[in-house]
Amino acid sequence: MKFMCWNVNGLRAISQKPGFWDWFRQSDADFIAFQETKAAPEQLADDLLNPENYLSYWSSSVGKRGYSGVVTYAKGAPAAVSEEIPELAWQGEGRLVRLETPHFHFLNVYFPNGQKDNSRLSYKLGYYEALLDYAQSLRKEKPVILCGDFNTAHYPIDIARPKENEKTSGFLPEERAWLDKLVGAGYIDTFRLINGPEAVAYSWWSLRTRARAYNIGWRIDYFFVSEELSGAVKKAWIEPEVTGSDHCPIGLELDLP
After folding, report:
1. Residue 180 pairs with which residues in a beta bridge?
2. Which are the catalytic amino acids?
3. Per-residue DSSP letters for 6-28?
């Protein structure tokens, strides 16, 4: 079973760029999870609502057009679908879609950005905690697959310039500590599982400079699986050659029934 995940930084815009639909079709994934769609379904044409062979499941921001948003495309109908973390405090920004299958819960999440001035840091940290609580409650029923733009690089190996960014949101100690907590709760970073702790790879590059040309990046997009699925992980990779967004796609293959 194949999964793809990508912060597209505007679904309408990227869908008009050369190569997007070729990538979509050639990926041939069972699930394709996009973050930062910046669109609600009613704003979109049929090619994005109903791509051939896929059903689509959306979560969009309420009252704020062109902001946040996630969509998961699935080849088959899931057993259940839900949007957002159940608690009202974390709803309204279009940050999560959950699909339930007979074998797992699949969470597609666009985590908040703490912002350069840290104005959203407390909200981001609160969302982190609420998301982990939610995932753990789902995990009582069946394993969890969690993917998305986490907006935090975990280790120094995950960022090109760790020293220069020690006080930058996205690499703050308290943000990284939550990723430690996630791992401690029994969730596996699949890229590290397959590629090892020293593999250098990034999934986001700042648009403000020529960061991508010089590969001055951050790995902030992840596939985590609850440890019950660790033996099913066969491949986990990053596709830095795929352009169109300031992020690149990441992938996961699981050997499941």
Report:
1. none
2. 149
3. EE-S-HHHHHTSTTHHHHHHHH-
